[in-house]
């Protein structure tokens, strides 16, 4: 059976699309993996009225009304199938490349059921605290005003403070979970021993780097354990820096894959 055609639209410096970029590099995918599986990556930007437009007009136009990342799977004779969440896109790619993990591609969930459960814990907690970061941001940061839909007059200090407390609590909880692996054992990954990088590292790093790059906010400023994790993980190739994301936008994904 012919493999489906897959198109993924990415706003390269955005929070959730970064997860996909980090994923592609961490997985050790090469342009040939993408072409074999008929995967087209399309960098997009925000046009007038907050619509998404492809940076390269020869590449497919983003469907209307989507958030990014967004993926469309096309099978002959079947209607287009849309996948709208970054987590689901990473899961789909994990399944697609699952059989190739034995070879040159990296395992990103974990080598044991326990390690995979830790990865799942980290992803779920990060997704929870991202919501609080968003609530804090739109109630306190002027850079959110152009897109938040909330005016400065509507900002709530009480809500921002509440969100900040929740963020602190989530980070303390995460530090409790990973302290032994990161501090005592010196692991690179939040998922523990024997794995270089996991989906858990990817989702946390995307949030940390995005917050600094776009809002000048240091998410891990009070986190001793996670600061150690960040120092190690941030040097890795998969943690694609802002300038390289922008370079990829112009010169294509070959820059890093
Ligand atoms: N939960 C979604 C969030 C996606 C999201 O909010 N993406 C932002 C850009 S980083 C976006 O497209 N915002 C505009 C919108 O939602 O209309 C995911 O994990 O993919």
TrEMBL record:
Gene3D superfamilies: 1.20.1050.10, Glutaredoxin (3.40.30.10). Transmembrane segments: none annotated. It comes from the Eukaryota. PROSITE patterns: GST_CTER. Residues 112-253 form the GST C-terminal domain. SUPFAM superfamilies: GST C-terminal domain-like. This is GST C-terminal domain-containing protein. It comes from Amniculicola lignicola CBS 123094.
